[in-house]
Every structure is written in structure tokens, then in C-alpha cells.
User: Fold this.
Amino acid sequence: MLQAIGLTSAPHRGLPPAVDDLTFEAGSGCVTALLGPPGSGKTSALRLMLEIEPGRGITYFRGRPLHRVAHPAREVGVLLGNVPGHPARTARGQLRMLCAAAGVPASRADALLDAVGLAELGDQRIGMLSPGMDRRLALASALLGDPHALILDDPVKGLTAREADWLHGMLRAHADRGGTVLYTTQDPKEAARSAGHVVTVDAGRLVADQSVTDFSRTRLRPRVAVRSPHAARLAAIVTREARAGRRSVEVVTEASSSRISVYGSSCAEIGDAAFRHGLPVHQLADEVGDTGPGDSGPGDGPGPAGSVVSSRPLRDGPGAAVGAGPAPLVAADVPEPDARPAANAAAHLPPPIRRRPARGPLRPVRYELRRLFGVRTTTLIVVVALVTSVALSVLLARNGRTPLPNVLAAWPPLLPLPPAALGAGLLGALSFGDEFRYPALAAGRGTVPRRLGLLLAKLAVSAGVALLLALLAVLASAESLRLVYGGDLVRVPPNVVPLAVSWSGLTVGCAWAGLLAAGIFRVTAAGVAAVLAVPVLMVPLIQAIPKVPTARSMSGLPGRLGELSWLRWPHEVDRWVLAMVRVVAHPVGTALTLSLSVLVCAYLFMSLRSRARW
Assistant:
């Protein structure tokens, strides 16, 4: 069962909250529709339930709030937005990446592709899929962890009627297996046809919480839709005869002058009236109209013109006049849901997966590796960085005045950072920027273990990629110099250890700066800006500080650290410690260290400040 209690969104300045003290329940084994017009706060309510947006209130998933659920992918599946993943990623690659995050076998991706009818399109890129295929892939992503609850935001938006019937069949099949389904819609017809429980909201407040039977009785009014070239004359005749017979009949003229809606009558009575007066009728249909969220009974006035919930045309076609005598026509109620799509969907749903304990910290690492190498952007950035490094190294070595470390790092004075460091920073910024641009872990944002595990995995993977890129850049530059100018130019410098430490620290620091900034501001450009701010803003600021003459040195620091920790390490460790101290004391190292410290504090503050956590 899903229980939402007191959901209230944070109001914008001068505006009422989008969701105001909303409380409702969605039971197990039932499909619940959250119904409301556009702008009524349905999507904001879902985001509050998932703890993505800040606000008040709490939502219990089988008695536990989401941030207390250890494995959210096994408790709730989410379909939010129109983009199921990065457009350059394949459908199978997207699902396997999410399988690594959910801790389920990668084979479940193929099972779900077959279940949603995308088995033959598994290697197709997401950007090439149609809107209907996008929805199928998004539903497969929500079902990966075999969750108990499904939360979907307008799942049939942009789908054809056949695709919508298939999707609702899948949702009913999930509910028949004991699951909880909650989806938003603005169409009362859809809610009455496919849901067992309807929660109506308007302006962020609860209007009605009803079973589908009560909803159909109180919110939907049967009516007769008539299309005739003499609609105004027919409306006057029906109104006059109803007054003469003292019957409660209401005639409403629709937007089109050739169409009227008659409440409180039947097709037989309208057909008889048109036949007696010799009026042609082009369409005669029983329909069910929506009375609107504020109305509560069949005695209220009709809703907006043309707000049709269901329609069953009985006689259609140009020039089709009503025949002699009343036809035995029966008004149609809300159509019963077709059981065949649900049965077919239940037959294709994959079996429940066996519950297993968490696989430890390797789960987010596998997810991050699949995310990083699942698109060609990573390879393209690495290749561009290496090619640029080689070209700059050859040009810098030509004049013979640039020091060898700068030549190998391809770092001319004109550039704020070498290409390898810029590439590492861009890859770090993309690692969090894509998470918010193409949200794959929407259900896991509110959990503390996922936030810490995902952050550590991203830091570890980005550091590894940055070190690999730094090593490849130096090796590629050295080999290109040997080929162009001979082997005498490239020699191992005596201070290779501090140079290696500083080079590694620069690339890893840039990768982490881009990653943390993108995670704080939720955009890739912020990560790139944070990387460029180190040499452009921080280094000149530090260099502008007046240098104070030093009266003491830090010689012997490694030995004193060893005495403090009661540990004895080899003498080689002393060289590495001193090299790291010199790197931090360098202006670039100092600026990078300060930037990382500020970003880490800001990230922790933003994460712990609200329950909308990663």
C-alpha cells in the first residue's frame, strides 16, 4: 500500500503552493488514477512522493518512507518525463546499466525487452525510437527491479489508442499480481476505463477520493450527441417538447454550430423528434460527459463543451436521416475495460525475480562503468584530448625553450589547463550532468545509501579514467616526440616522482571538481566552469597574495608523521609524502585543493539540507 500524507510543495514567491495538504492512499492489487486538469499539481505530487522536490509531508511505501528503503528499485518503479535515457545509448545498454544499479542480473534486461515488445529493437539507439517505443522502454526501466509499486506520470501521453490499451493492460497485470499502481491523467475516460480507484485533485487540493463505480456515478453524466445541419432548430424542438412533457432535459450547443448535446434524454426520443419534423441527422451517439472536478452529481450542469469521456456512435454518415419509428437503442454506460490486453500483458510479464541481498559497493561501480562507456561521448573526448596533446607537444618541442615536463603534458602558457586535464574535467562534469538531464535513478534520489554509494563510485571511476588519460597523454606525447625529433629529446627527469604526483593530482582534481560542481548545480556547464575557474580565477587570486618570507621549513615532516601514527614505513614513502606536500604548496595545487574543499562542503550541505538526496 502507498500512503501520501500532507503533501505540500514549497511555494514560490507570491504564488500558492502547487500541492497543498494532499492526503490519499493507493491500495495493493489496484490501479489508482490521480486525475486532474493541467496545472492541478499532479506531477508535483509525484515528485514530492519520491522526495525529488523539497516540501512537507511524507509518503509511506508499505509502511516505510522512501529515504528509509534500502533498495528503492525493488520497492518503487518510476516513469517521469518523456526521455527514457541518453539518446545515444541503446535500449539494451540503458536497461543493463540500470540492472547494475538495481542489483539484478543483466539477463533481466533482455527479459523485459521481450515483455514490452522491444526484443528486436534492443540495439536501436534511444534517440531513434518513436514516442510509443520510448514509453515501452520507460516502463521496462520501471519494472527492472520487480518493484511492488509503480508511479507513472501521464504514461499514455502521445500514444495511440492501441498503444494506450496495451500499456494499461500491463499496469492491470502488475496490479493483479498484488502490486500497487498510481498514474496521473487528465482524461476522465481513461480513469473510468482503466483504474479501480480515482483520486481527483484540483489546484493542488484533494477534491474526491472514490472507487471507479462512485466516480462514474458522480462525475460522469450520460448524454446524447447530435450532429445535424439544423442543430439550432432541433434543439428548440427538443426543449419545447421536454417542457410540454415536464421532463428534465438540458440542451447544450457545442462549439460547432452543427452539434448539440442533450442531457436527460435518449437517442430514441431525439430520433423520434427529428423524424416527426423532417430534420436530417448526420450523427446520433450515446456519450458520457465529464461534469468537472468541482461538480458532484448528475444534477449539476454539464462540463466544458466537447469534454467527452466515452462515445459509441449509433448512426453516422452524411445524409443519414432518422428512420421511421423509434429504434430500440440503449444508452451506453462507461465502457468496461477489455480483459484481453491485460491477459496478454500478464502472459508476457517476466516472472518475479528472487530476492537477494545487496551485492556490496560494486553495484554502483558497475552502474557507473556502464554509464561511462555506454555512449561514444567518452571515447570521443579521450581521442580529442590525446590528439590535441600530441599536436601541442610536437609544436612546443620545436622551439626548444619549453621545459620537458610542459612538453610532455602539452601545456603551453596560453592555455589555462592541458588538454588531458580539460578532458578529465569534462568527463567528470558529464558523469553527474547526465544524471539530471536524463534521470535514470529517479526513485533512488531519496535514499542515503544510494547517494553515498553513487558518489563514491563516481569519484573512483572518474579518478581512474583521469589517471588513465594522463598516462596515455604522456606516453603518446613521448612517442610522437621520439618519432619526429629522435630519441635524444625525451629523457627521464631526476624529479620524476613529484612530477608524476603533480600531474596525477592535476588530472584527478579537475575530474573531481567537474563532478562535484555538476552534482551541486545539476548541469554539466557548471562542472566545466568549476574546472576552468581553478586556473583562471583561483590561481591569479592566490598569486596576488603577498609572499611572506619563511623562517622555518617542513623538512622531516614524513618522519614526524610516522611517529605520530606509531607506524614505520619505507623511506620511499617519505619521497612521496614530500612530493604531495610540494604539489599542494604550488599555486595550482593550492587553488585546486581549495576549490575541491569548497565543493565537497557545498555538496554535503546541499545533500544533507533536504530529504531530496542522491
